[in-house]
Design brief:
Elements: H1 12-22, E1 40-44, H2 48-59, E2 63-67, H3 73-80, E3 85-87, E4 101-104, H4 109-121, E5 126-128, E6 141-145, E7 148-152, H5 159-172, H6 177-194, H7 197-208, H8 211-217, H9 221-235, E8 250-255, H10 266-274, E9 277-280, H11 286-289, E10 297-300, E11 303-304, E12 307-308, H12 311-323, E13 327-332, H13 342-351, E14 356-359, H14 364-372, E15 385-389, H15 400-404, E16 409-413, H16 419-428, E17 436-441, E18 449-454, H17 458-464, E19 471-475, H18 486-495
Parallel strand pairs: 1-2, 1-4, 2-3, 4-5, 8-13, 8-14, 9-10, 9-13, 15-16
Antiparallel strand pairs: 6-7, 11-12, 16-19, 17-18, 17-19
Bound molecules: S-adenosyl-L-homocysteine.
Length: about 500
């Protein structure tokens, strides 16, 4: 528990710096993780900074004693309930006796120096807040996914940089990383019993980088457990040559969002990084694909004139690649379950016993709404929002009367080819001619255009502007709030 330190010999940070320059193999600090459960730690100081350190130390289960003439409220509360010990007195060297670590957070240089000296005299690790030269240990920036812990330090040189690195890691690491570590820990013995040493590593790699890990990250440990059992049962079997020694593949049905790559979810990004092959749609732009693993095979399965991949063919390809033992990402524009035929794809996967996971995406309506400043619901203007496909024009089941009503927003997907017909249906069902409407083309992409009008004008406006798919028609009072591309929008509105 005791740490000897260069500081205790009085050398200070200067010598450390010099040594560091001379010897490239020298570290300024040794990163270690202290076990503080039920061990005595002394914090000197009763203010805001001390309170922060106390909170951190208490999370490790340390027995914290605070030395200070006065405590701020939250510390006083903890003292009152016995969750920390309070020594109400000015600091004296004997206060550090028996401590396994000491923190000086008084904000007073002299008192902090006295705490540092007293601790170092007894070779007790000491941290003086914001004063690395007076400290024998420093607090790193922490990413806590217990039991996974990441500590980041700049050796006190650039705390802002450490914090920034921490934020970046926070953003990129799955929230349930700790859950996966525990999940694996609980199964280590079983794996040891079942697999030879040589096979274990690649087994665990498959768990971490495959559907089992993905399921734990998605919070479905029950399903993860089942897949894990299956992997373990089958992993010792001789695998067929066709799968190149790999097991049964798996599929990630991923929503790519409306086009802007920054609107991918973190989970989409994580799974795109581990997929071996990516089947993508016409709506998935290149910048999104670029976020995928460099060496992943990319297969275009978009439906476009001259290169039409039928849904049946897509289903076949999904099964084909999974059967090769590959991790297949099925990347679809927007959300896979909003007019994306995701439902049919998971049916096929389930029928073939291929494990899959679905990752939601930001659907085009939400992307367009944000990008064009159209609040889809509004306390005064719209109490509900409906997503409709413009393909169902002849579908008698569609209740046009209810879509034509006021105080709601209706978003038509795949409707730009039939704008006049859609508008006519709404008008026939009772919608007013001056009911506001907007068309948002290529929402969230650099070429995005927003055109505003009314049910009477919008079809003409869109036609004059040569609007082409992908675009959405949004109908409702809220579209009057849209930030339209003023030139195009108003000019054409005037023309119409
Ligand atoms: N699953 C997708 C929708 C697929 S249907 C989603 O959730 O967004 C295809 C239709 O989506 C297009 O015809 C168009 O109406 C709409 N769409 C997709 N991306 C769009 C974008 N960037 N801007 C406007 N509309 C878009």
């Amino acid at each position: 528990m005791r740490l000897t330190s260069e500081n205790s010999s009085g050398s200070g940070a200067g010598l450390r710096g010099a040594r560091q320059r001379d010897n490239p193999f020298c570290m300024d600090y040794l990163p270690v993780f202290l076990q503080l459960q039920a061990r005595p730690v002394v914090v000197v100081g009763g203010g805001r900074v001390a309170a922060r350190k106390v909170e951190l130390l208490r999370r490790t289960g340390a027995r914290v004693t605070v030395v200070a003439p006065e405590l701020r409220d939250e510390l006083r509360g903890l003292a009152a309930t016995g969750e920390l010990q309070h020594i109400q007195a000015p600091f004296s060297p004997s206060h550090v006796n028996g401590a396994v670590a000491v923190v000086a957070a008084t904000g007073l240089t002299e008192v902090n120096a006295a705490v540092s000296a007293a601790a170092q005299a007894q070779h007790i690790p000491v941290n003086v807040v914001d004063d690395p030269a007076a400290s024998t240990f420093i607090f790193p920036a922490i990413v806590d996914r217990s039991p996974i812990l990441i500590a980041i330090s700049s050796g006190g040189q650039a705390p802002v940089l450490s914090r920034r690195i921490r934020e970046q890691m926070e953003a990129l690491l799955p929230a349930r990383l700790g859950a996966l570590a525990r999940f694996m820990g609980e199964r280590r013995k079983a794996v040891k019993r079942t697999l030879r040493t040589a096979a274990r590593r690649s087994f665990w790699e498959r768990i971490v980088g495959g559907i089992v890990g993905a399921r734990v990250f998605a919070g479905d440990e029950a399903a993860a457990g089942k897949d894990f059992e299956r992997e373990l049962r089958t992993s010792h079997l001789t695998r067929s040559a066709a799968t190149g020694g790999r097991g049964l593949g798996e599929c990630y049905l991923i929503g790519a969002g409306p086009g802007d790559p920054d609107l991918l979810t973190l989970r989409a990004l994580q799974l795109l990084q581990q997929a071996d092959v990516i089947l993508y749609d016409r709506l998935v732009p290149a910048p999104v694909l670029e976020r995928a693993r460099r060496d992943a095979e990319r297969v275009f399965v978009g439906k476009q004139p001259g290169n039409h991949t039928s849904q049946e063919r897509i289903n076949e390809l999904l099964v084909h690649y999974a059967r090769l033992g590959l991790r297949v990402a099925r990347l679809k524009g927007g959300d896979p379950f909003i007019f994306g035929r995701g439902g049919e794809e998971i049916e096929v996967l389930a029928a073939h016993g291929i494990p899959y996971i679905v990752v939601p995406g930001i659907t085009a309506a939400l992307g367009a709404a944000a990008a064009a400043n159209i609040p889809l619901t509004h306390r005064k203007l719209a109490q509900s929002v409906t997503f409709v496909t413009g393909h169902v024009l002849d579908d008698e089941a569609l209740d046009w009367r209810s879509l034509a009503g006021a105080r709601q927003t209706v978003v038509f997907y795949m409707g730009v080819g039939h704008l006049p017909q859609i508008v006519a249906k709404l008008r026939a069902a009772g919608a007013a001619a001056d009911h506001p409407a907007a068309v948002v083309e290529r929402a969230t992409l650099p070429e995005q255009r927003t055109l505003r009008g009314t049910l009477e004008t919008i079809a003409g406006v869109a036609q004059a502007a040569n609007v082409a798919p992908p675009a959405l028609l949004i109908v409702g009072d809220v579209t009057a709030l849209a930030t339209a591309d003023s030139l195009i929008g108003s000019e054409l509105e005037a023309m119409a």
